[in-house]
């Protein structure tokens, strides 16, 4: 599987950060596209004032987590639809020109 060193997109919803990577791999002679999503909470450490991340959320942060997951799903669905359209256009035969 080819791994990109950078996500195709990143965004934040409140304290929730999302990174999405796109991977292409060959399976049974076809190129298959898969996505990997990383979701984490970003916060600032009180003592050192440094930014940190965690996979743990408080209950009052669940709405942001839900919104972030929904946006990630919409992004992946949009990419999958675009890839399908590009694939069908590439394999479509050109229309004959009327004379």
Shape: elongated
Class based on secondary structure composition and strand pairing: alpha+beta
Helix content: 25-40%
**Mean pLDDT level:** 87
Uncertain stretches of 5 or more adjacent residues: none
Largest sheet: 4 strands, antiparallel
- Write down the Rg: 19 Å
**Approximately what portion of the residues adopt beta-strand conformation?**
35-45%
Describe the structure.
- The protein is of the alpha+beta class and 99 residues long.
- It has one domain (9-91).
- It has 1 helix and 4 strands.
- It has one helix at 62-91, and strands spanning 9-13, 16-27, 30-44, 51-54.
- A 4-stranded antiparallel β-sheet has the order 1-2-3-4, with helices on one face.
- Strand 2 (16-27) and strand 3 (30-44) form a beta hairpin.
- The longest helix is centred in the C-terminal third of the chain and has 30 residues, at 62-91.
- The chain is elongated.
- The termini are far apart.
- The mean pLDDT is 87.
Short descriptors:
99 residues, elongated, 1 helix, 36% strand, four-stranded antiparallel beta sheet, alpha+beta
List the helices and strands and how they pair.
Elements (H helix, E strand, L loop, with lengths): L8 E5 L2 E12 L2 E15 L6 E4 L7 H30 L8
Antiparallel strand pairs: 1-2, 2-3, 3-4
Provide a compact summary of the structure:
The chain is α+β, with helices and mostly antiparallel strands and 99 residues long.
